[in-house]
Amino acid sequence: MVGTEVNFCWEKMTKSNLKTQAREMLRARKLYCTEGRIAILKVLLKAAKPLTQEKIARRLGKKRFDKVTIYRTLTSLLKVGIVHRAFLHQRAWHFELADHCTETQCHPHFTCTNCGSTHCLPDVSVPMAKSPHRGFVIQRQQVRLEGLCPACA
Ligand SMILES: [Zn+2]
Ligand SMILES: [Zn+2]
After folding, report:
1. How far is the CA of 87 from the centre of ligand 2 (A)?
2. Which of the residues 5, 72, 93, 99 has the least number of beta carbons within 10 Å of its own beta carbon?
């Protein structure tokens, strides 16, 4: 699904503002630049960490988008791979930008067992697991690491 023309340069994009970055991401995946998509991408770009739908809604501000709109918008961004579900915590999916991930592997996440904070580890890559049996097709690998964060170590 990822062609050469959609591999945008992250380094270059961080220099432009959030709205321009959001527009470029949508254009690269041939999605219309709707107000909702741009607003959600701006929230995720600014946060630079996984957020639940509830937290995204809070950062968007109550008046602008209802729950259904946010859900639908997230779904459309998930479908084209701009956004990933990073992990499930306390029954809530945490969403984040998939810019540091490949088609088959998301960057690992580290959760501190002491304070409960979760961190993205975009520079850590883990060898892809091999399918153990016939009939199992591995499509994506997500790694969750646990331990102590720098503040708690
Ligand atoms: Zn900690
Ligand atoms: Zn992450």
Report:
1. 9
2. 5
Ligand 2 geometric centre to CA of 122 (Å): 7
**Higher pLDDT residue, 145 or 140?**
145
Exposure of 27 in the CB half-sphere (CA atoms within 13 A):
8
Per the structure block, which two tokens stand in for 139? 């499509």
- From ligand 1's centre to the CA of 113, what distance in Å? 7
Q: CA torsion sign, 71 to 77 to 82 to 85?
A: positive
**CA 32, CA 16: separation in Å to the nearest integer?**
20
Q: Sign (positive/negative) of CA torsion 106, 110, 78, 30?
A: negative
CB atoms within 10 A of CB 133: 5
Position 5 pLDDT exceeds 70: no
pTM of the shown model = 0.75
Could you tell me the distance, in angstroms and rounded to a whole number, from the CA of residue 141 to the centre of ligand 2?
13
Spatial CA neighbour of 44 closest among 36, 28, 56, 58: 56
